Amino acid sequence: MALPKVIIQLYPMMPSGGEEGRKAKRPLGANVELYHQIVHEWTDIAKEADAMGVWGLSTIEHHLHSEGYEVGPNPGVLNAYWAGQVKNARVGALGYVAATQDPIRVAEETAIIDHLSRGKYFVGFARGYQSRWTNIIGQFTGTAATVSDGSAEDKRNREIFEERVEMILDCWQNESTVLDGKYYQAPFPLETGVQGYPAAAITASAGAIGEIGADGATRSICVVPKPFQKPYPPVFIAASKSRESIEFCAKHGFRPTYFMPNQGIFDLSRLYVEVARNYGHEFALGERQNIVRWPHITKSAAEYDDKLRRYDLDIYKNFYGPFVPQFPQGDEHTILDGMKRSEIFIGGTVDESIRQWRVIYDECPAEYITLIWHWAEQPKDDMMEEMRLFMEKVLPELEIPDYPV
Questions:
Q1: In 10 A of CB 296, how many CB atoms?
Q2: Of 88, 92, 285, 401, which sits most exposed with the smallest number of CB within 10 A?
Q3: pTM for this predicted structure
Q4: For residue 256, what is the domain's CATH number?
């Protein structure tokens, strides 16, 4: 038997003391002195978490968060830096918003980080749901933020996302490739290739076979470097409720990352096993599954309520709530009750935390757990104590099968 692999998802919620403090200090995300302090504390947390034995350290891609809720515009830079700071933990991102990214650049960047980390790297991809930035940074593809509602825009977003992720796989694995998609092509234009490249002669004789055609035009691309891990680093895909996301993960053996209540995880983890089998993958229930939760481990139920109020209420009310209509809104009591009922928060005493995790693991013995705290609204030392309690007291109660590497 083994224990779940714990990933700590780290992005700063810039500390404000709550909603009114956030308004008074606007725009908190642009506070240079505070960010400077936070970005170095981030590294201290990564080192301490590594010493506790976490499997992975992750961050996000979100842009333009002037309110200071999720300041994480460049996961690759942080991952590359952390790789030189930690001893055992893997580094990665949950994840790159692929529909807004150039697939060649992502393939290059992630391969470099895989080498810098000596193969202790994982890659995550997400579709993108925040129009304020995805519609801007994704404008070269016409990508618009969407929810999984089956609309035409949702379908287009998914097509672009899946096309780009599969192109990244091509770039990682193939010495020479042609990217011929509905929304992206390389070399461009495909019809003629890239004509007039001055150094075509040496590429024809020393580059990848087939890069230069008989007419001297660039006819395929060789994306370098290739990843250190073979065939490529572990891939995680964010999923909030969509069956299509799980089917895409199952097809490729990706690791679905569940931002959803328990029953959705139970249903979709079984779907994953069924669909994966159709593609020749034999996975056990729970294998390659990644459950995301926001924990608090406290001395009492009252302290749990207090921490939800101080550290989580602001972002839940003003940020999560508007994106997820089913999250209850109303007065403080109603919102706090909704947070506890949402199942994305797990909290209370050590015993109560174990009980809630066991409800999940009795149904789905997931290989991975991703934990998110709203640091730095929650002070570092308080968060690290909760992390220590989880690693020492809760995690050992969640034994799982020893899944293949």
A1: 25
A2: 88
A3: 0.96
A4: 3.20.20.30
